[in-house]
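User: Fold both of these, please.

Assistant: Here is the first one.
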Amino acid sequence: MQPDRPSLINVLFRGFRRRCPNCGNGRILHSYLKVIASCDSCTEPLGHIRADDFPPYVTIVIVGHIMLPLVLYMERAYALPIWMQMTLWPPMALILMLMVLPLAKGACVGLMWHLGLQGDEKQ
């Protein structure tokens, strides 16, 4: 790692906020999930980083760890009828996934930038 580059924690936090991992000022996504070609603020190239399947996996883990305790608590405490559970949990999970996915994408792109990965590495 170069001495002028930010720490891993700083890069992950910047990515989670969907900011440039290098300067923390420019945006990292120009639409819902599209990575910008380069930072508007510091001109750091970011468009070559391909996160592919990693952000959805992170999103599933985060949403699963939020939803499961809620479902179990509601079932145990209130014993909701099945029809109510079938109308409550799927939309809630979908909305939560759509909210978390761009945050996870930013954090994954920041992590890949910090590690020097591009997403096309061969085994």
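And the second sequence with its predicted structure:
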Amino acid sequence: MTFYPTDRLALFIDGSNLYAAVKTLNFDIDYKKLLEEFRKRGILVRAYYYTAIVEDQEYSPIRPLVDWLDYNGFTMVTKPVRRYTEASTGLTRTKGNMDIEIAVDMLEIAPSVDHIVLFSGDGDFRRLIDAVQRKGVRVTVVSTVKSQPPMVSDDLRRQADTFVDLQDLATLIGRPRQAPAPRYLQDADEDGTGGAHQD
């Protein structure tokens, strides 16, 4: 990763996407180490973490992580998971995509930073990165190609100024994987919201 000591940095963490990526690599993120690592690399202006939360559950496994991050230097951006029933199949699905929130915040902070680090492999962000780069901001994408299939879109990887594989950061910001998440958390739908945020 190319960073300069005077870089004003902002981190953008797509919670469900990052969780899905590290799960395939069999480690967990140590968020305290993650902040420490990027504070060494420049002036950390803001670290955003985005996740959708199921609000009608008596216990939400993501809630302790959200609370910890909120008290320990992260700016939390959350919204309720939406449930809907498909008319054609009668199946109940969940939706908790945070793409719009990430895009709005990234465009708003772009004039105040030199370098943005996006923890996501979602190809939908390619155009966003292009827009931010045209404002003079360098963008590093952190995801992985070392999973089957790769977790990062090729378009996103090409658009980024730098791509960093999560596997290469495992010793810096990771810790061994804890016990597997409950089964209902493992069944992420096409939006990747199925509890893919547990730390």
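The radius of gyration is 16 Å.
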